[in-house]
Amino acid sequence: MSDSVFVDVIAQGHGDLGPAECRPVTAKLPEKSFEETAWILVPRPIRKREDPEPPR
To answer: Who's near 36: CB < 8 A, 6+ residues apart?
Structure first.
């Protein structure tokens, strides 16, 4: 997402994403002389629920 969306929405606690789930990256398009901070979502790992013990 763009830096402005992250700063104005996510970092302010709006929406379903938390700031801790996002990491900054640099988006570059050298042929257009473009370089800006962007944010990617890095979701928390899904923990596999432990299987219950089989009946004895």
So the answer is: 2, 3, 26, 27
**pTM of the prediction?**
0.68
Residue 7: which of 50, 22, 44, 32 has the closest Cα? 22
3-state secondary structure at position 49: coil
Nearest to 2 by CA among 31, 40, 44, 42: 40
Residue labelled with tokens 């257009």: 32
Mean pLDDT in runs of 10 for the chain (56 residues)? 95 90 95 97 78 66
Give the ranges where 1-56 is alpha helix by DSSP (H).
Answer: 3-5
